[in-house]
C-alpha cells in the first residue's frame, strides 16, 4: 500500500496484481540485460490449487492447517499468482528469495527451518521408509497412506510454525508479510518441479530412503532364507531318524 496525493487529499493506493506482475517482468528483464538469470516460480494454471504434485500440494496443505498463518496466506497466494516470486533458491534448512512488491526493487526474503535431529531422522527412516520401493515412487508421492500421515504428524517431516523462522526486507517484515507468504507457496511450486528439493531443505539424503528400503528388503530375504534352511535341516533330521538316505 502506498500513500498518494490527489487534489490535496491523501488516499491509500492498494497495489494490484497487474502492477506487481508488470514490475516483476520489468525487473527480470533488467537483470537479464545485466547477465543475471533469476529463477522465478509461478503457478502454471489458474486452477484453485496453486501446486499440482503430491509434494507441492502436501507442502501447501501443511501450511494451511495452522491457525498462526491462516489470515496471512491469502495475500501470499495472490502475490505468487501474480508472478511476484522472482527468484527462489532452496538450500539445507534455508530458502532465499526475491519478491516483487509495490516498490520498484524487490524485497529479500529468507526462511530458515530448524534441522531435524539425528534421532528423529533415524526414527523416521526406521518407521516409514521400509515401504518405499524406488525413487520414482518416492518422488511421485506414491506410498502407503500410513506413511503419508507420518509426514504430517507432530514429529513428521513437514515443518510446524515453531520450526519456521522468516525475515523480509520490507517495512512489515517483523511478522509474516505477504512476501514471506508468497515465498511459502513458492516453495510448494519448486517442489512440483523438483521434489528432491524437499530433502535438501530438510537436510535429508533422499538416496538414504531408498538404501534403507533395500537394506530392509535384503534383511527380510536373509531371514526368510534362514527360516527355510532351518526347516530343511529339521526335515533332514526327521529323515535320518527314519534311516532314509
Ligand atoms: Zn515483506
Count of beta strands: 6
- Radius of gyration equals 26 Å
Overall geometric form = elongated
Bound molecules: zinc ion
List the helices and strands and how they pair.
Elements: E1 2-6, E2 9-13, H1 17-33, H2 54-64, H3 67-81, E3 85-91, E4 94-99, E5 107-113, H4 118-128, H5 135-139, H6 145-152, E6 164-168, H7 178-193, H8 196-201, H9 206-241
Antiparallel strand pairs: 1-2, 3-4, 4-5, 5-6
Zinc ion binds at residues 107, 168, 170, 172-173, 177, 179-180.
What does the model show?
The protein contains nine helices and six strands, in the order ββαααβββαααβααα. It is elongated and about 70 Å long. A hairpin with a 2-residue loop joins strand 3 (85-91) and strand 4 (94-99). The protein has a domain at 17-116 and 157-204. The protein is α+β, with helices and mostly antiparallel strands and 245 residues long. Strands 3-4-5-6 form a four-stranded antiparallel beta sheet. Bound molecules: zinc ion. Residues 107, 168, 170, 172-173, 177, 179-180 line the site of zinc ion.
Amino acid at each position: 500500500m502506498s500513500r498518494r496525493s490527489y487534489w490535496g487529499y491523501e488516499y491509500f493506493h492498494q497495489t494490484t496484481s497487474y502492477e506487481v506482475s508488470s514490475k516483476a517482468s520489468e525487473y527480470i528483464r533488467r537483470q537479464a540485460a545485466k547477465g543475471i538469470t533469476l529463477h522465478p516460480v509461478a503457478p502454471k494454471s489458474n486452477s484453485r490449487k496453486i501446486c499440482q504434485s503430491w509434494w507441492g500440494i502436501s507442502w501447501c496443505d501443511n501450511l494451511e492447517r495452522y491457525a498462526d498463518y491462516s489470515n496471512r496466506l491469502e495475500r501470499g497466494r495472490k502475490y505468487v499468482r501474480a508472478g511476484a516470486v522472482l527468484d527462489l533458491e532452496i538450500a539445507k534448512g534455508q530458502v532465499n528469495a526475491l519478491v516483487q512488491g509495490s516498490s520498484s526493487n524487490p524485497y529479500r526474503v529468507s526462511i530458515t527451518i530448524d534441522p531435524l535431529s539425528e534421532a528423529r531422522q533415524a526414527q523416521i527412516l526406521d518407521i516409514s521408509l521400509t515401504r518405499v520401493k524406488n525413487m520414482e515412487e518416492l518422488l511421485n508421492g506414491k506410498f502407503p497412506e500410513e506413511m503419508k500421515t507420518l509426514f504430517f504428524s507432530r514429529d513428521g517431516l513437514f515443518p510446524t510454525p515453531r520450526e519456521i523462522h522468516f525475515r523480509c526486507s520490507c517495512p512489515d517484515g517483523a511478522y509474516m508479510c505477504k512476501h514471506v507468504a508468497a515465498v511459502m507457496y513458492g516453495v510448494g511450486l519448486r517442489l512440483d518441479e523438483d521434489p528432491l528439493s524437499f530433502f535438501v531443505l530438510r537436510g535429508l539424503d533422499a538416496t538414504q530412503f531408498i538404501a534403507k528400503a533395500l537394506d530392509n528388503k535384503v534383511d527380510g530375504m536373509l531371514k526368510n532364507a534362514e527360516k527355510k534352511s532351518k526347516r530343511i535341516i529339521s526335515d533332514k533330521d526327521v529323515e535320518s531318524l527314519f534311516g532314509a538316505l
